[in-house]
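Data availability excerpt. The first of two example chains:
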Amino acid sequence: FLGTTGLILATIVGTIVGLARTSSNELARLRGRTYVDIFRNIPLILQVFFWYALITHLPTPRAAHEAFGMLLTSRGLYVPIPNVGGTALALAVLAVIAAIALPVWLGRTSQISQPVGERSAIQFAGAAVALACAVVILMIGRLPDAALLDFPALQGLNLKGGLRIPPEFSALAVAIAVYGGSYIAEIVRGGFKAVGKGQMEAALSLGLSPWRVFTLVRLPLALRAMLPILANQYVWLMKATTMGIAVGFTDFFMIVALTINHSGQTLEVIGILMAGFLAINLSLAAVFNRINKAIALKGNQLRG
């Protein structure tokens, strides 16, 4: 879960900074370059220690920072969670994932001759229906005599309710997002720089708006250049989650260390750890290879 969260956050940060690096605004380019130069050159383990020390020195629960129902303290981040059963929550999460994947699938299966406005309307409708299903599932699965959301609140000297995200998890997620985002930003910048100006000028000459040129021409071509390098970066960031042992985070590596201390079966347990990471990273690489093969330009491969 930490690896997935870190990859998502690093992708968001890297995309924003990478777009800033390719912006025509000089200030945005300067900020993006400064971000990359600073965080890319500080070792990840030092960033983990920095964010962990920063979070653990936040105020106590009585003086917690509050925003949008969330509470930030030295004991972690407390966020509201739905008061629903486990099955309903799992179905709602699947519906949200469908809301993200459905527009992509509808866009790929639509006919080329279909008007762009009609295609966008179908994609938006599909996402809206999936999100509506998620809301309905949460309403139906709500626990009896309980509010839809369980908000954290101060009770005595501690906070009760909501979901607590421990400082160790928060520090690792932020460090991976910030550090990995600096590398992903350069991958994004290189991908967009690889798109020739002639292709964008040809799209503009067809009467497409700048947004359509970006989404239909520039972004797909840039993704083809980004994916192979991005896959390697994701695999590396997934392996970097083992640094959680430095701040006491109970991840896969920590569980293996405790198992070795209790059982003494060092070689066997380390073999299980290696097999686990091998399975995760091979699965991640296989997914990216499949995506890269699906979006590759046909007829542009070398043939033996």
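And the second chain:
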Amino acid sequence: MRAMTPPRPRHLLRLAALVAAMAALALLVLDGARQAGLARLDADLQNRLTLTRHAVTAQIERYRYLPALIGQDARILSLLDRPGDDRSAANAYLKATRALSGVDQIYVLDPQGRALAASNAGEPGSFVGQDYAFRPYFRQALTRGAARYYAVGVTTGIPGYFLASRIGSAEAPLGVAVAKVDMGGLQATWASADQSVALADAAGVVFLAGQPDWLFRPLDPLDDATARQLDGEQRYAGQAVPTAAPLRAALTGLRLAEVPLQPDGWPILAAEPLAPVERQAQLLALLAGLSGLLVSALAVGWRQRRQLIRVRLNQNAELERRVAERTEALAHEIDQRRRAQDELREAHESLVHAAKLAVLGRMSTTIVHEVSQPLSALDSTLAAAELHLGAGREARAVASLAAARALLMRMQKMVRNLKSFGARQRADPPEAVDMARVLTAGAEVLAPRLRDLGQRLALTLPPGLPAVSGQAVRLEQVVINLILNAAEAAAGAGARAPVRVALEPAPGGLRLTILDRGAGIDPALQDRIQEPFFTTRVTGEGLGLGLSITRGILDQIGATLAFHPRPGGGTVTVVDLPLYHDAAHPAAAPRLDDRLAG
């Protein structure tokens, strides 16, 4: 009997190939995830370095102007010119400058490097009398005009950033002004946030760090010449910098990045641990391997699922067909809605056009109403001029003609303002208006009409009232309409008491009050008296536009209009007017002639 060949070796071969493929996939994912993690880490480090560089630069630049400013002060120049004189004025100036600027210390050196004055004069550890000629910033400031240097203070033992500026010219230097900036606050901020950032000098020695064990360590081993230079400058006095372990070699397991700090070129360093990146890469590689195995397992049942896939494809085709039908229906609906919107827009434009025609009609009627009173005054003035000419009183005739021309100009302005009132967008901007002058002008226009009505006008205009916001001609229209209504109401009731007009200060503005002894306003008509074309007069005596126009003018400038019954009969008309916001001086209030008021 022939033995059958078992299929086992072929299955083992397929299994081995599958395992090898999954291992290769895991290695590829591991490498890709590691590179992506390092790229993100480098980006984070660069962002941190940028922020750190800006913070360091801002801390230094905040005081960069101080040495040059100090070198221009007369007290400092006098001290350098006569070192043997009293130094109290210079020391007091440096103390005050230190207090105002917030810098750590300020001091002034003579051309030999000895401190003549300091902001800590008279205090323990004062710089006065100390010799700083060995400091590089002193020598560089004398030769170059300015210098920057970081070191541990030889007098105080406190590290600081030194900004120096030469006083005087390069050929005849008078001395050097120095400002010491305390960088400890910046370092404390880094330490409180546990940030692995540091700043090193040109020799590669870390002098600012968020990690305390990084301080005063060289990034790389120092050569003998650099070590001797640091020792000669006493840059880090009291610190064993040459024997400290190099920092760069000790930062194992960390990703290190650095950028230069301009203009010194000092390196700013930032570091982040690599362990989180490695752990994430390994986790992603493991997930990739497991995912590959899962995909392989799913592939085994692929043939059994082909029929199900075919059914789903058919279902998808049916769904796409329905979606296409619905899309077509939606497109039709959108087209119908667009047509409806076009029709609505056309209807709206028609309404706007109709409203414009209505406004034009209202304006023409308004002009007739508002010009009628000045025309009456113009007729009287021209008649007076004719009488004066006939009587040979040429001077009075000329005055009457001038008054007539003024009335014509006022009517022209009135017409222009009525047009702008009809088209609100063209109204003139508010201006400072002297209401006393407006009331005086309105009374002049109304004087002939008041005499015809047998009425008198009593004005109360306190001096020194501030200006209100509005347009003078429009407010004159308001005054004329309201006073004329009050006078006609009083005349109709047979009242002999004068129409009283008062102007007085009110919260946020001025209050105009008009009191008459007319028949008053029927409470049933209170809400309608300000409607256009509403009037209680006999047909032909008025168009019912006066109060509507008045209300429109007052609304535009933010004023209010109200009517109240007066005890004993009559009406109290109250207008509250806002002050002109730029009115810095009170407006002059001219007095009204007794003959005009009567």
